[in-house]
Write a structure and sequence with these properties.
Blueprint lengths: L5 E4 L3 H13 L5 E4 L16 E2 L10 H20 L3 E2 L3 E5 L5 H13 L5 E3 L1 H7 L7 E5 L3 E3 L1 H14 L3 E3 L4 E7 L2 E6 L2 E5 L1 E4 L5 H7 L7 E12 L10 E4 L11 E4 L5 E9 L13 H8 L2 H22 L1 H9 L10 E13 L10 E5 L2 E6 L8 H11 L3
Parallel strand pairs: 1-2, 1-13, 2-9, 5-15, 13-20
Antiparallel strand pairs: 3-8, 4-8, 5-7, 6-7, 10-11, 11-12, 14-17, 14-18, 15-16, 16-17, 19-20
Amino acid sequence: MSRGPLVIIGAGIVGLATAYQAQRRFPALRVTVLDKEPAVAAHQTGRNSGVIHSGIYYKPGSLKASNCRRGKAMLETFCREHDVPFETCGKVIVATRDDELPALARIQDRGRANGVACERIGPDRLRNLEPHAAGIAALHVPESGIVDYPGVCRALVAEIERAGGRVQTSARVVAIETRPDGVTLATTAGEYHATTLINCAGLHSDRVTALAGATPPAQIIPFRGEYYELAPEAHHLCRNLIYPVPDPAFPFLGVHFTRMIAGGVECGPNAVLALAREGYTWADIEPDDLAETLGYPAFWRLIARHWRMGLGEIHRSLSKAAFTHALQRLIPDIRERDLTPAPSGVRAQALAPDGALVDDFLIVRAAHTIHVCNAPSPAATGALAIGETVAAMLGQ
């Protein structure tokens, strides 16, 4: 691809990291990042739990595994260089039943294959690390951490602008014309021309792909992640990060406890279908978004496979008692009175036409365009590595 003017859609951490890495690789490149919101990191980046993932869960050789491991190191270096708060605090992945032990062993095998330091520990060592956690065994992952991802984005914006780039907010893309010499974008902030367009639009990445004249390989299905926060008097129940053994058939990690870099402890997320691409509560309903989800045949194939789990997630969404009960598997001392509502997030999950949840990062190329079509967790951890990978495609 040519290295003329570059436009990136999406000022979340992946879009900003891609702009930053493109400038580093091609210093003369003119880069503009567009976002429809009035501020950067308004959706997935600014609403996640702030965890620096180690790479322990991901299939060896996958884009998730390689970009998480490489991106984690790059992220920590970037934070040190730009005074962004982060902490390597460690986490435990806790098995509470005998039938979870084989999955715990498989996670450890994956972690070792990915180069993650992880140790199988028993109940006594678990109590030393997390005195209020209950489990029959656990994995201790000392290199996991927490970070201020919006702070990372602010630092990326400063670096992009220092290198001569531009981050334009309140610029919703309404039309894209692909021509032999590049791309023209009509936006609410004016018209932009680029030799290459990179789509990092997250929750709307499939729509931007279609707007640019390409066929999306998957459709985005929005899943809302619902959180509670521990009341201050209950903060002592969690020292750092406490996770369950995840269900290998589902892409979510289950409700867990996360100490936040700015203070406090978050519990969650529950995962339910959002009724809008940006549906952060049950009251956020966008009929066109919902019709698009319900009209996608693959969605019903997904429901047919996971309806029992889906009903459980809805039950926990509607019942604080049920949510509390799920948390008590890990910390039995938790009580409903210890939980206060916290802001929700929405995960952009790509769903393939056959009903399979796309498990890995998905990046596709078309004429004068590169589309990041699926970048769920651990995309924030791996953003600088993803950005480096995408930026390298500009020279190919």
